[in-house]
Amino acid sequence: MTAPAKAALRDIADTLYRAAADSCREHRRYAELVERDASDSEQKKVRGAVRMCDEILDEAVDLYEIACLEESGHADDSWWHKANMVWRNAKEYLRHQAASKRLLRGEGGHSKNEFMELRIEHELEASALLRLRQAIESYRAARPEVA
User: Fold this and answer.
1) How many domains does the chain contain in total?
2) What pTM does this model have?
């Protein structure tokens, strides 16, 4: 693989990293507001920022996936392995988030089983977000110049 092709994929990996870091940062910010019982208005605005960051993350995940399908020969690059972990954990987080949203959209009331399923999905989503945070820290260690 040529140096420009490697650099292009690395740039996309950096984009994925930044999108994941921003998403995690906004989720943490929102959680702190909820914990402090901040005003509904402030929480609503930050929820909008969280949604926007998650949409950007979703786009970055897709972009990285496509770029990896088109490129090969990165097995010797530590940043590539770390970026793959960011990608996998971001996909997992986004999958659980989508499942939670589907469960919340249910018409009318929710049964006890639906609430239990929603609770489990939220816990899985939180766990996936934690793993994503760990993956971005690992990527930052491999590419400190990106931070």
Assistant:
1) 1
2) 0.86
